[in-house]
């Protein structure tokens, strides 16, 4: 199996921060994963395209960057079944499907990252989530060296969350994702930006609009390094929301099924006066305050310090605690935000 020692990860993360990786492995088959599972000593971290990862220290743990490719499509009377290997690029898969008349993923166009990363945080955009179409995920477990198939319900999908971020965190690798896309298709035009489209629009047209919207607001990591939304949209109780609404009459909000209320993290950051804010070579994007950008820093810690500052400002103004969506990786492996904030 291909592996490299003492590797700089600067080109392997879309924040473009510098860190040295002691050893990086590129397993290209389940057989190679089996070999790796026998020689692996913790800590390690599984890396996709590095578009949702922040390397915090100047050293990383051992990295595993799978190189598993291939797309298979089958169908029955009512559905298409799309099985894509983990290292396929997500956006390319969306384009491949929509170009071939397989509709449903168009609202998820241009989300950066690999197919294997998609179930981990249950990627979502414009009212569609991966969990709407995911029927199973193949999972290689390191401790037993076995390949398992998890049904969608076993994946425990919720808002930007899944079992892969919880009980199965860093214990294996997603090797393949199978999607089930109904042939009977209806566009999802519920979000602002798409709701002006006519209901007889095609999936290709929706995809084009989503791409236009994203490109108009979100910085291209090749030009300004970033990892998309840095924080999750906070979900608060009805009581907390009522109180906020008294003080901030124009606060955007979205009622959830469980009577909780979703707030827009980008709006909170903007209202705290931080849109466009810059410090230590990093900053808050000037078009979309939810995106933190790296202008010219080499250090993940600069992003952490900025995120801490934003969290404190938003908490002071609104009493709402923002939580990162981006995964934090220290020298010792993946860490939690609280551990990083509390223990440096
Ligand atoms: P926006 O229109 O400025 O809205 C701000 C937030 O409000 C969004 O994050 C979205 O939450 C929520 N929202 C808007 N309309 C909603 C509706 N009709 N029902 C429920 N919630 C609604 O959002 P934006 O920043 O341009 O993003 C548009 C979409 O792209 C969002 O779905 C966003 O999640 C997605 N996006 C994802 C990333 C990423 O890195 N994961 C980056 C950029 C954009 P939700 O995020 O829960 O949908």
Features:
single chain; five-stranded antiparallel β-sheet; four-stranded mixed β-sheet; 27% strand; binds NADP nicotinamide-adenine-dinucleotide phosphate
Task: Report the count of strand segments.
Answer: 21
Q: Terminal Cα separation, in Å? A: 36 Å
Mean pLDDT: 96
Residues in β-strands, percent: 25-35%
Q: Which strands sit side by side, in order, in the main sheet?
A: 6-7-12-10-11
Report the major sheet: 5 strands, antiparallel
Verbal overview:
The structure is a single chain. The protein is an alpha+beta fold. The protein contains seven helices and 21 strands. The protein has helices at residues 30-39, 90-99, 203-217, 238-247, 265-271, 300-318, 337-343, and strands spanning 2-8, 20-26, 44-46, 53-55, 62-64, 71-75, 79-85, 124-125, 128-129, 134-141, 146-151, 172-182, 226-229, 235-236, 253-255, 261-263, 278-279, 282-284, 291-294, 327-330, 333-335. The protein is globular and about 60 Å long. The relative contact order is 0.14. NADP nicotinamide-adenine-dinucleotide phosphate is lined by residues 124-127, 190-192, 217-218, 228-229, 233, 254, 262, 264, 266, 288, 290.
Helices and strands in order, then pairings?
Elements: E1 2-8, E2 20-26, H1 30-39, E3 44-46, E4 53-55, E5 62-64, E6 71-75, E7 79-85, H2 90-99, E8 124-125, E9 128-129, E10 134-141, E11 146-151, E12 172-182, H3 203-217, E13 226-229, E14 235-236, H4 238-247, E15 253-255, E16 261-263, H5 265-271, E17 278-279, E18 282-284, E19 291-294, H6 300-318, E20 327-330, E21 333-335, H7 337-343
Bound molecules: NADP nicotinamide-adenine-dinucleotide phosphate (NAP).
NADP nicotinamide-adenine-dinucleotide phosphate is lined by residues 124-127, 190-192, 217-218, 228-229, 233, 254, 262, 264, 266, 288, 290.
């Amino acid at each position: 199996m291909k592996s490299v020692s003492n590797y700089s990860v600067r080109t392997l993360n879309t924040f473009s921060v510098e860190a040295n990786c002691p050893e990086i492995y590129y397993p290209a088959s389940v057989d190679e994963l089996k070999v790796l599972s026998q020689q692996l000593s913790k800590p390690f971290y599984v890396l996709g395209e590095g578009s949702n990862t922040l390397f915090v220290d100047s050293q990383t743990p051992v990295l595993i960057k799978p190189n598993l490719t291939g797309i298979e499509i089958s169908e029955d009377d009512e559905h298409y079944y799309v099985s894509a290997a983990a290292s396929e690029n997500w956006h390319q898969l969306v384009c491949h499907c929509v170009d071939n008349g397989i509709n449903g993923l168009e609202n998820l166009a241009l989300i950066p990252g690999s197919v294997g990363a998609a179930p981990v945080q249950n990627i979502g955009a414009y009212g569609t989530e991966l969990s709407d179409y995911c029927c199973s995920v193949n999972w290689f477990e390191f401790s037993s060296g076995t390949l398992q198939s998890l049904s969608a319900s076993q994946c425990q999908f919720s808002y930007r969350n899944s079992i892969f971020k919880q009980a199965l965190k860093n214990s294996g690798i997603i090797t393949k994702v199978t999607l089930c896309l109904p042939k009977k298709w209806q566009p999802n035009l519920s979000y602002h930006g798409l709701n002006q489209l006519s209901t007889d629009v095609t999936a290709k047209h929706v995809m084009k609009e989503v791409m236009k919207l994203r490109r108009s607001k979100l910085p291209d990591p090749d030009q300004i390094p970033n990892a998309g939304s840095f924080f999750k949209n906070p979900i608060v109780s009805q009581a907390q929301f009522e109180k906020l609404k008294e003080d901030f009459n124009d606060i955007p909000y979205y009622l959830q099924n469980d009577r909780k209320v979703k707030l827009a993290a980008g709006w909170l950051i903007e209202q705290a006066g931080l849109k466009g804010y810059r410090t230590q070579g990093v900053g808050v994007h000037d078009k979309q305050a939810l995106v933190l950008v790296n202008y010219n820093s080499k250090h993940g810690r600069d992003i952490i310090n900025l995120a801490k500052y934003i969290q404190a400002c938003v908490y002071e103004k609104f009493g709402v605690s923002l939580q990162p969506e981006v995964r934090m990786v220290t020298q010792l492996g993946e860490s939690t935000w609280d551990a990083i904030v509390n223990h440096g």
